[in-house]
Amino acid sequence: EVQLVESGGGLVHPGASLRLSCAASGFSFESSDMSWVRQAPGEGPEWISAIASGGVVTYYDDSVKGRFAVSRDNAKKLLYLQMNSLRPDDTAVYYCARGWGPYGSRGQGTLVTVSS
Questions:
Q1: What pLDDT sits at residue 2?
Q2: Helix or strand run (H / E) with residue 110
Q3: Beta pairing class for 110-114 and 10-12
Q4: What sign does the CA torsion over 100, 103, 109, 111 have?
Q5: Distance between CA 101 and CA 69 in Å, rounded?
Q6: CA 103-105-109 angle, 5° bins
Q7: Please, which residues have CB within 8 angstroms of residue 65's CB and are 6 or more apart in sequence?
Q8: Structure confidence by residue, pLDDT tens digits, 57-75
């Protein structure tokens, strides 16, 4: 059974940084591309980042490019999202998802709130 558990969210001020983590189990993490998807209140899901299985090829939506960085540790089966220069419009529930795109299995999400 695919299990993905996100952590690291919280309430921060604009301009702050957070690092999200996603612990994976139940599938071959090291062979899987992985994505980050977020969903703001009242909005649909937004695919914001992805990383290929080998950790070299990455994708960023324009809304986060230059501020967020995705990485992974295949030995530990962990996916990360380093988020810098956070803005109020980054407020959302952040999910990690299996695969390249927003449609794979997701975890329960972690809430990020950016507010002054």
A1: 93
A2: strand 110-114
A3: parallel
A4: positive
A5: 16
A6: 100
A7: none
A8: 999 999 999 999 999 999 9
Please name every residue paired with 7 in a beta bridge, in sequence order, or none if there are none: 21
CA distance 58 to 35: 9
Contacts of 61 (CB under 8 A, 6+ apart): 46, 47, 48, 49
Give me the pLDDT at residue 101, please. Answer: 93
CA distances from 22 to 13, 43, 70, 77, 88 (A): 23, 22, 11, 8, 23
Q: Residue ranges of the alpha helices (H) in the chain? A: none
Q: Which amino acid appears at position 8 of this protein?
A: G
Output the CA–CA distances (angstroms, integers) from residue 15 to 5, 31, 40, 90, 98, in the order listed: 26, 35, 18, 11, 29
Model confidence at 110, in pLDDT bands (50, 70, 90)? very high
Q: Are 3 and 108 in contact (CB under 8 A)?
A: no
Q: Using CA of residue 7, residue 90, residue 75, residue 27, what is the dihedral sign?
A: positive
